[in-house]
TrEMBL record:
HAMAP family the record matches: LysA (MF_02120)
Residues covered by the Orn/DAP/Arg decarboxylase 2 N-terminal domain: 26-249
Gene3D superfamilies: Alanine racemase (3.20.20.10), Lyase, Ornithine Decarboxylase, Chain A, domain 1 (2.40.37.10)
Stated name of the protein: Diaminopimelate decarboxylase
Gene transcribed to yield this protein: lysA
Organism per entry: Deinococcus reticulitermitis
Length: 386
């Protein structure tokens, strides 16, 4: 943990909990690691991992482009300053408003199905997303390159789609393949790339091969980059990548406060963050490292539970912790990716604040939502009557 304990205590006192905290140096270091491993490739940050404008501006300044999947993400890209690296629009079900926003930003559009050929703005720059139909070692919800997933077209559909897109007057830059997120085996990437490479005799030389993201923070980037480079070279193509988690997961923590404990046969440590602030443990059974910011002589096995009225609202089960007490601070690690971005206001819980540690001080980068803001969009009787 690069942020000193006294700074975390101070942030909790000043900005409250639950609080997402990020380390600026680790964000920069992760971007530099990706750029070094993928030297010569264009890196697009997958905005969904963490869309805070401060992070977007930081990555844009480092030369990264953005990968977006919604009107909101495209608008954030624009608000952060369209990166020189460029913008990509992905998604299996794009709306007319999203196509139009992509066209305004000069984004490259990833075509996910045949119908899109007739829906795209005239003269779009496109990639065709191919689903390699490969086995992917990750949670079923996170596998996108398996045959039963909804993404992309089959290898057999690629060539006719490229031809149709060209006939419609679009600029077909090349192919896109993203097999999933939090992929455990690096060999899965090589398998998928091999399936895409089988298309080489039909496609001929391509301008771009975009191999997506999906790398775990601990992944061997050297191996993945070598495989990706080889595939791109075989197509005579420029390599593009779209990492999300790798760039931000390890640079973020969720700081939560112990509300209390109870022993009912199991030991429960109840904290002020749960499924509404951090959904990954509940949605994917994800386990995240926990760092208690207190000392105690005794330790025991604890279930760390959130405040929601759902039994699935657990941060962790069966973890050994020094005996917690109301008021103690607990840090949840690897929370920079898909933490804040997947938080919700379920149970009318305002979403948490976010702060960036610059190495010497805190820069608050998102205010805590106010309770009152939760119903500002709900209409008065005078407005909603017909
Ligand atoms: N490119 C495309 C087309 C994607 O769909 C994704 C992620 C990425 C890139 C970035 O993948 P990454 O490098 O972050 O693995 N909510 C889930 C993750 C869903 C990822 C969806 N697509 C989680 O909390 O694990």
């Amino acid at each position: 943990m690069p942020i000193p304990r006294h700074a975390l205590t101070e942030a909790a006192a000043r900005l409250g909990t639950p609080l997402y905290v990020y380390d600026a140096a680790e964000l920069d270091a992760a971007a530099a690691r990706v750029q070094a491993a993928f030297a010569g490739a264009q890196v697009f940050y997958a905005v969904k991992a963490n869309p805070n404008l401060h992070l977007l501006r930081r990555f844009a300044a480092a030369g990264l482009g953005f990968e977006c999947v919604s009107l909101g993400e495209l608008a954030r890209a624009q608000a952060a300053g369209v990166p020189v690296g460029g913008v990509i629009l992905n998604g299996p079900a794009k709306t007319d408003a999203e196509y139009a926003a992509a066209a305004r930003l000069g984004a490259t559009i990833v075509v996910d199905r045949e119908e899109e050929a007739a829906l795209l703005p005239p003269g779009s720059r496109v990639l065709v997303r191919v689903n390699p139909g490969a086995a992917v070692s990750t949670h079923d919800h996170l596998a996108t390159g398996a045959a039963r997933s909804k993404f992309g077209v089959t290898p057999e559909q690629v060539l006719p789609l490229m031809e149709r897109l060209r006939d419609e007057g679009h600029d077909v830059l090349g192919l896109h393949v993203h097999i999933g997120s939090a992929v455990e085996r690096e060999g899965d990437f090589a398998d998928a790339f091999a399936r895409v490479l089988a298309l080489r005799p039909q496609t001929g030389k391509l301008g771009v091969l975009n191999v997506g993201g999906g790398w775990l923070p601990g992944a061997d980037l050297g191996t993945i980059a070598a495989q990706a480079r080889q595939a791109a070279a075989a197509f005579g193509a420029e390599l593009w990548v779209e990492p999300g988690r790798y760039l931000v997961a390890s640079a973020g923590w969720l700081l939560t406060r112990v509300v209390g404990t109870k022993r009912t046969g199991r030991n429960f440590c109840l904290v002020d963050a749960g499924m509404t602030e951090f959904l990954r443990p509940m949605l994917y059974g994800a386990s995240h490292p926990l760092y208690p910011l207190w000392d105690a002589l005794a330790s025991d096995v604890w279930d760390v539970a959130g405040p929601a009225c759902e039994s699935g609202d657990m941060i962790a089960r069966g973890v050994t912790l020094p005996t917690p007490q109301r008021g103690h601070l607990l840090l949840i690690g690897e929370a920079g990716a898909y933490g804040a971005s997947m938080s919700s206001t379920y149970l009318s819980r305002p979403r948490p604040a976010e702060a960036l540690w610059t190495g010497s001080e805190w820069q608050p980068i998102r205010r805590r939502e106010s309770v009152e803001s939760l119903w500002t969009l709900e209409m008065a009787d005078s407005e909603s009557g017909d």
